[in-house]
Design goal:
Length: 292
Amino acid sequence: MADSPTRSISDELNFILTNRIPRVALTQFIGWFATIENRWLTKISIAIWKLFADLDLSEAKKEEFNSLRDCFIRELRAGLRPIDPRPAVWTSPCDAIVGAHGRVQAQSLFQTKGMSYRLEDLLGDKALAQQLEGTHYVTLRLLSSMYHRFHAPADATLREVTYHSGDTWNVNPPALARVPSLFCRNERAVLRFAIEANPCALVMVPVAAVLVASMRIHAIDQQLNLSYRGPHRFTSHSVCHKGEELGWFEHGSTIILFAPANCSFYTTIQEGYRIRMGEALLCHPFDTKLSS
């Protein structure tokens, strides 16, 4: 069914307001503004945020926030995101809306219906892209109002993080339908995990966006942001257990996850499905004993 004229106009207006602006400068300003520690300024900022998003803070571990950033990266109260304990299950690394997903074919994957992009352009690594040919991928989009921390979907060892500086396009549906290879343009990190003898059994790509361009990866103990230029590679030997926190976005964005070809998605995983961190995402054939 074709989009209605009203929906098309709304999408076009959304795209213009969130992308035809000085994206990087505005993102850097919001990054600075969000760190200001002032009780009343924080309360007013959160109240304005609630006018534009379905922000629910009832799950937050804290009732008061020191800054807007403190609210963005809030922790949840214990027990609210149970981790599926089944050994054959890989879980969602974050709260998200499921987007394009399927198999990597001929080195390409879908950004949205009718628009694809090259895997090598996303990863910045031809050899890794070739290794991931035929694997499953799933796009997980975090809304601005969601819980912004991300977690390990399986028992694994984080081997490498490669950070790519980039632009700060919005990653919502209107932008995905209009900007070719959007994920390949934005700031992002490529996290490579080993499981058993497979050195790239699991790959996660957190992608930043407008107002968001900063992320924290605990294993490298460094905040990554737009001040970096060119790829920066960090080695790691961090053992991660399923459900363990890996880091956070400063706001909300997207994670693209790659899993081996002999995995399978659960039947609930459909485009538009709202998934929670810890919920079953994929069924895999590995014994998830940690790699050495």
